[in-house]
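pasting for ref
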Amino acid sequence: MSQYLSNYQAGGWASKIGALASIRNDSIRVELPYTDMNLNSDGGVVHGGIISTILHDVGKLLSFKAFESVSRETIDTLDSQINFIKAAKETDLVASAEIIRQTKFLLFVRAFVHNSNGDAVAVGNFIYRVCGDELSRDLHCDDIKQRFSDGAIKTSPMAEMMNPSIKKRHSGLSIVAMDEGECIFRQEDLPEVRDEFGYMARGAELLMMDNAAVFGSFSVVPDARKAATVDLKVSFCDRAKDEAVLAYGVSLKQRGNIVHNQIYVVGAASEKLIAMGTMTFWS
């Protein structure tokens, strides 16, 4: 096995979810054997954030292979769009990817996840880039960051009821605020949520972003038990390292059985914008 595949598997987040990377006939695959710990709830389906992880990561590994002449730590994700096609229940999963286009600094990738029967579960489009020494500053973020302030969002008693189930599967992850159409998750900086370079894993961020939008939508949809994420779009603005992160989800529009949500991730200590995106919830 190539060293970068071994390093990936040894990373905290990949190891936690049980992701297995391999290369066959010059094609990279990430397999995910079934385990209850990757479900969204007891007796449920594989969490959308876990599916997002292997979609993202197979593309990331492909970018490592494509940009062989640069340090792999300088390669980061720029944008992603993930469509969830079919629930994954009691099944192994496998992710594969193909290059759509490559430039000097950008790689455009399409990735797929299939279940044990060969059915498509999810598809994603990703852009990866080679980073340099760059000036980074947040611009018009003050109004959004204000929502992360203590007391800005009331905490529903439902949050405390849900936290034990969340922490059962994901140590250090919890709801810290929840009200009608709004929710904030906090992920502590633990070894098991880091990637092979010590940054907060993009997969861990995708999972908490999905959670923040889903839980914020619970009070909006008529029957949350029948609802599911169908689309998650994310722009990755920065990297988090050596700090916890917060994800804020807000429901902006309900139209029939659809809820449109916006999501933001910031560093808990630095307050820098890490990621932003949208999520479409279908019930």
